[in-house]
Specification:
- There is one protein chain.
- By secondary structure, the chain is of the alpha/beta class.
- It has a single domain, classed as 3-Layer(aba) Sandwich (Rossmann fold).
- Helices cover 38% and strands 19% of the residues.
- Helix 1 packs across helix 5 and helix 2 packs parallel to helix 3.
């Protein structure tokens, strides 16, 4: 599942969303469609698929290297903690910024994710308008203000 916003004057960015909650995926997709930054959203539903996408294996051969990863923590098969550890230990993937976007507001989770070198940690709000604002702010920050490494 992926959607794209296209503007011929803007270079598009690839975002990988790793989340098993369909309603959160839909809300994130809608939030990212708004704004002045063209993006292609790639969605995988668990950590096993995320690593296949990132390593371009299985059905993800030829998948683009994402410019940003939005990673949920609590997922089946392989959770976000394991995915983050795998990404940050892989010399081909460790420079991709990873934003933890999760419902957990546990101080232990926050500390653990920064210990694993997450680039930032954001707790998903329950309020719909606030959710839209947070995802839009993430997009604006990472693609308007921050200089990211090139491939």
């Amino acid at each position: 599942m992926f959607s794209a916003l296209h503007d011929p004057h803007l270079q598009s960015v690839d975002i990988l969303l790793v989340d098993d909650d369909e309603s959160d995926v839909l809300l994130t997709k809608r939030s990212l469609e708004n704004g002045k930054i063209a993006n292609v959203l790639h969605v995988v539903n668990d950590g096993v698929e995320a690593m296949e996408f990132l390593r371009q294996t299985g059905r993800y051969i030829g998948a683009p290297r994402p410019d940003l990863i939005l990673l949920d923590l609590n997922m089946p098969r392989k959770d976000g903690r394991e995915v983050l550890a795998d990404i940050k230990c892989d010399p081909h993937l460790h420079s991709i910024p990873v934003v933890i976007l999760t419902t957990s507001d546990s101080e232990q989770d926050v500390a653990d994710m920064y210990d694993l070198h997450a680039n930032c940690y954001v707790t998903k709000p329950v309020d719909l308008a606030q959710f839209f604002k947070i995802v839009t702010d993430i997009k604006q920050f990472w693609f308007s203000l921050v200089k990211l490494p090139s491939d």
